[in-house]
Amino acid sequence: MATNQNLMDSIKNPNGRVAVKLQPNTFSKDSSDKYVGRAVRNTHTVGNVIQLVANKVPQLDIGTVYSVCDALEKVISESLARGNSVKCLNLGMFYIACKGVSDGKNTVPGLTVKFIPSEMAKAAIEKIAVDQDSYAEPEATISSITDVDTGTSDGSLSLKGSVQISGKKLLIGGEESGIWFAPAKGENESIDESGADWTKVEAKLTVNKPGTLLFPLPKSLEGGKYKIVLKTRSPSHPSQIRKNLITTYSDAVLIG
Q1: Is a pLDDT exceeding 80 seen at residue 24?
Q2: What sign does the CA torsion over 78, 82, 88, 92 have?
Q3: For 204-233, what is the HEC assignment?
Q4: Residue 64, pLDDT score
Q5: Average pLDDT over the chain, rounded to whole?
Q6: Concatenated DSSP letters of the chain
């Protein structure tokens, strides 16, 4: 029972409140003063949900609740597999839909599963208050910088070697986009924001994906401390071109 209580403790969230982050709507054809909001998710795990259901029906042990939930999951999955839409109790309906567009009249588009929430589900969130309303510039997220030659991610790179950057929204694309190495100077590792002393990566990127960038270091680069500067107009998909450049700076790396 202690384990189940720990599961619930791990998702504490103020009742009826949710955090929202705002970002500019860079795809808008109108003025740039329009924004889109993103609700920050606080997710109940399967274990959390089962424990909460068990709390609602104390006469049933948690093993029985788990068995019923597991059976419901299988029934929904099997019904979808037979081509049926499925009402999920009074919460809404899972249904099969086409995704994307077909290449011609004789090409069948792929299928996906979507969910239509019921009025009951929609009503459940009517009284939620915004706990935090903050503005966030869209940017890439760099989780690691790896020296391909040594396989290490300790903040050092081999001169004339190759580097792999992992993270989110890293795809480089659009006008004025690219990758630069900006000298990081002094104890504060500050860089010249004008870009006058930056060295651009001119070689074609070996890998250019939202989660991974792989490329050789510029041959003209000298040893020293640098911050890697990423600029892109399409961080998630090559067809999604933003009006504004998204610029992201890495922590300083030592090249030698």
Answers
A1: no
A2: positive
A3: CCCEECCCEEEEECCCCCCCEEEEEEEEEC
A4: 94
A5: 84
A6: -HHHHHHHHTT---TTEEEEEEEE-TT-SS-S--EEEEEPP-PPPHHHHHHHHHHH-TTS-HHHHHHHHHHHHHHHHHHHHTT--EEETTTEEEEEEEES--SSTT-PPEEEEEEEE-HHHHHTTTT-EEEEEEE-----EEEEEEETTT---SSEE-TT-EEEEEEES----STT-EEEEEE-BTTTTB--TT-TT-EE--SPPSEE-SSEEEEEPPTTPPSEEEEEEEEES-SS-TT---SS-EEEEEEEEEE-
169 and 210 Cβ atoms separated by less than 8 Å:
yes
> 31: which DSSP letter?
-
Three-class SS state of 28: coil
In this predicted structure, the answer to whether residue 220 has a pLDDT above a threshold of 60 is yes
Average pLDDT over residues 46-71: 91
The alpha carbon of 200 is separated from its chain's Cα centroid by a whole number of angstroms, namely: 27
DSSP code of 51?
H
pLDDT tens across 230-251, in order?
999 887 777 777 777 888 999 9
